[in-house]
Amino acid sequence: MSKGAIHPQLTRYQHWRHLWELKVQVLAPSRSRSSTMGNEDYFNWRENMERCQRESKRQVQALLYQTRRLKEENKVLRIQVSSSAPPRSPQPRSQRVNSRKNEEATYPRNVDFLHAE
Predict the structure, then answer these.
(1) Helix or strand run (H / E) with residue 87
(2) Does residue 4 fall inside a structural domain?
């Protein structure tokens, strides 16, 4: 059995961590370059990193807010549908389907009409 099948959450976490590390590697200067980088370059790099982090946090907060709002909206819609839904037929679904087939057998000229629905 694969590791992903045993721990799908762990695998997802590792995937996102790997993507984050790749992004940091692209944005971060290499060690050899950082030693030759001046203070102004380092300050600009750090400022850029902090700006990216703030932007990421804002995006996460917006997504969390939207998720909460959609969950609440979904809950309200489920309540509306359940309270306005017509009462269920006492017959099980299989019997309703069978009764339609019996109607087709009894009234063969209605077959085209029933299938056109």
Answers:
(1) none
(2) yes
